[in-house]
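tokens incoming
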């Protein structure tokens, strides 16, 4: 008699928890972030997944059931975004069917959405800066908010009440209408996410991520100053960069702590600019690692498990990033020397990864099995390892994804 969904759920959850705690589970866990793979596997377009919630639900559930990973990822918060993005006229992203081919994934639009001379305004009142300066630049529908008075000046009946007159314009009214429409669309994302989580649980699949956060420097660089702006700022205004990272730290921590109320301890943290190709080790030690470490430790102190995806090569940082509490975090590596990482981090962090997407996309199942065998033999030795691809599976061949998952289940047994 087969195991019940409840038994499978508990078994999978325990397997991953053992790996994170650097214990030896029954076998190596295996999972992935699917990206738009379910759409391609179902014979639909990436664009359809972004606009059709029922199709997204069906393709994601069907893919999960077919491939049987140890944990699933919820597609709604990161893929069912089309209606909300269009309502707001979002300018920081091109997406399938909106600036990109219907079968191409997201393309981020770099820009200095915060000017160099605006650090002080951001540091003084981040929320007011977001509403009146940042939102009008990244959301075309909210551009009229740039005419509003400073929100922090509206305090009481004789301190700022008259400033509400700034809201009295057809343009601001239209922006507020767009905001209400976007709120309704965003609620549909939330409803879909809740329903997906319930269906996955009923089928015996835990969700691998309970919350998302980001390194403060990445938030500053990715969304506000842009890569070029942030890199120049490290030389021209280093004190402002450090102050902004410290200002962002509690906000990023608040994002991650949302996992507590969701009852899922794992917090996903993608790393973009703290890599070997973006900054020197000295810059990493000064601008990137201090606030990232505070974020990681803050989440661990709240009994959460940071799941840090190093999206690139960070081999030169391995000794530095080992300075965290042991048995509490996952370091997921894309192009870092994962075997060297095992040597340095094996007693500190669970290691996740890193079957190359190039192999999964252009190789054969035998190529995949050979790489997975080496990972299990070396990185999986004595536990503390989760098998995964190097990144999301958009372009992977189904037969290769199946080879990665099935081989890990067959060969990656301990004892």
């Amino acid at each position: 008699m087969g195991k019940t969904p409840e038994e499978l759920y508990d078994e999978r959850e325990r397997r991953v928890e053992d790996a994170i705690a650097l214990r030896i589970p029954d076998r190596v866990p295996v999972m992935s972030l699917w990206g738009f793979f379910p759409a391609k596997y179902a014979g639909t377009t990436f664009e359809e997944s972004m606009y059709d919630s029922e199709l997204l639900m069906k393709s994601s559930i069907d893919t999960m059931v077919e491939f049987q990973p140890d944990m699933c990822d919820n597609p709604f918060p990161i893929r069912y975004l089309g209606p909300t993005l269009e309502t707001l006229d979002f300018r920081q992203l091109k997406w399938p069917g909106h600036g990109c081919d219907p079968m191409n994934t997201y393309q981020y639009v770099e820009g200095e959405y915060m000017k160099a001379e605006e650090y002080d305004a951001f540091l003084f009142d981040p929320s007011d800066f977001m509403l009146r300066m940042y939102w009008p630049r990244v959301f075309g529908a909210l551009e009229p908010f740039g005419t509003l008075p400073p929100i922090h000046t509206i305090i009481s009946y004789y301190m700022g009440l008259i400033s509400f007159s700034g809201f009295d314009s057809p343009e601001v009214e239209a922006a507020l209408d767009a905001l209400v429409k976007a709120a309704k669309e965003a609620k549909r994302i939330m409803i879909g996410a809740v329903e997906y989580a319930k269906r996955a649980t009923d089928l015996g699949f835990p969700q691998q991520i309970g919350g998302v956060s980001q390194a403060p420097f990445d938030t500053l660089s990715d969304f506000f100053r842009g890569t070029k702006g942030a890199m120049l700022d490290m030389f021209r205004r280093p004190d402002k960069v450090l102050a902004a990272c410290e200002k962002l730290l509690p906000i990023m921590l608040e994002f991650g702590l949302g996992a507590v109320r969701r009852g899922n301890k794992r917090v996903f943290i993608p790393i973009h600019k703290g890599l070997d190709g973006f900054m020197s080790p000295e810059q990493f030690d000064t601008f990137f690692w201090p606030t990232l470490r505070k974020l990681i430790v803050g989440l661990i102190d709240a009994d959460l498990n940071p799941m840090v995806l190093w999206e690139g090569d960070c081999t030169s940082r391995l000794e530095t990033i080992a300075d965290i509490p042991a048995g509490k975090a996952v370091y997921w590596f894309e192009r870092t020397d994962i075997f060297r990482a095992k040597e340095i981090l094996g007693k500190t962090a669970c290691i996740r990864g890193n079957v190359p997407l190039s192999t999964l996309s252009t190789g054969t199942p035998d190529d995949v099995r050979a790489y997975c065998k080496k990972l299990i033999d070396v990185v999986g030795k004595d536990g503390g390892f989760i098998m995964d691809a190097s990144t999301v599976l958009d372009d992977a061949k189904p037969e290769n994804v199946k080879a990665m998952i099935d081989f890990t289940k067959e060969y990656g047994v301990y004892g």
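note: Residues 154 and 164 are 8 Å apart (CA to CA).
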